[in-house]
Amino acid sequence: MTNTLRTKQGTPIINLPKTFSFIQNGITEFDSILSLFKWNYSNTKIIIDGTQCKHTSYQTLTLLILYLWKLKQQKTFISIQFPKHSSLDIMWNRLDGPNYLSILNNTQNNFHYIYNKPLFAIKYKDHNITKMLNTIRDYAMDLPTDLIRGYEDAVRYIISELTYNALEHGFNPQIPSLLQFNWYRDKNQLSFILADLGVGIKTHLEQTYAPFTSNIDAIAMALEPEISGTFGVNVGPYKQQN
Strand 5-6 and strand 12-15: pairing? Predict the structure, then answer.
């Protein structure tokens, strides 16, 4: 969004588009959705307006939760306007989205999702990570599809590596990372998203590369091929390895 809509009182409004999903017209595209999230709101009030939203996905709603957590950390009051009983409202409730604040504010709380749309807040030194990974593995094994039959442990391993990477490089003591996982029956496709704020990427890359002016610049470089902060580390398991 290049122009921010506001109420008569001057409150910024973030309008969720008609299709709030990374897949639009059969094409996966991230920028149009990520551009909705303005991260500089602090000590103010904003409105998240979903009245025009007709189609969404669990992945984009997962990122919305992370965005709301970040704004709450910045002391932003958020009013969420989702039409009752709309598909947006139903999916939001399936993820346990209405309880996003209690989950943020209580280290012992986590999402009470419906079984086939698991969502987990990954908290630092959370002893439930193994349980979470086993839940996802069991969920994948119970699906009436042979999509990953025989590869359940491989799927668990991939998610495990990404999860611990989020704790190592994306740890924020105030904001958990998120993992959401589901099966699209019509497409016979498993999809998961792991989201964190990437706060450790800049420090990690600066072990090898010149200092970055911002976290955003560091994240952009981290997305390039053959880029890793461990290339400059000559101790431990990374010694003499590229």
Answer: antiparallel
CA–CA separation, 76 and 175 (whole Å)? 15
Measured between alpha carbons, how far is 168 from 166 in angstroms, rounded to an integer?
Answer: 5
Task: Give strand pairing partners of 206.
Answer: none
Cα–Cα distance list, 33 to 22, 55, 61, 115, 159 (Å): 7, 13, 11, 27, 24
Instruction: Tell whether the model's pLDDT for residue 78 goes beyond 90.
Output: yes
Q: Report d(CA 226, CA 228) in Å as an integer.
A: 7
Is 150 buried (19+), middle (13-18) or exposed (0-12) by CB count in 10 A? Answer: exposed
pLDDT at 241 exceeding the cut of 70 = no
Q: What is the mean pLDDT of the chain?
A: 82
What SS3 state is found at 86? coil
Strand partners, 181: 192
Measure the CA–CA gap between 105 and 86, rounded to whole angstroms: 28
pLDDT tens digits, residue range 171-220? 777 888 898 888 777 777 778 888 887 667 888 888 889 999 987 788 78
227 within 8 A of 238, measured Cβ to Cβ: no
Q: Out of 83-92, 119-128, 167-176, give the one with best mean pLDDT.
A: 83-92
Smallest CA-to-CA distance from 136 within 115, 150, 122, 121 is with 115
37, 120, 160 from 176: Cα distances, Å: 18, 9, 16
Among 194, 109, 208, 190, which residue's Cα sits nearest to residue 160?
194
Q: Is the pLDDT of residue 235 over 50?
A: yes
Tokens of 130: 């193994």
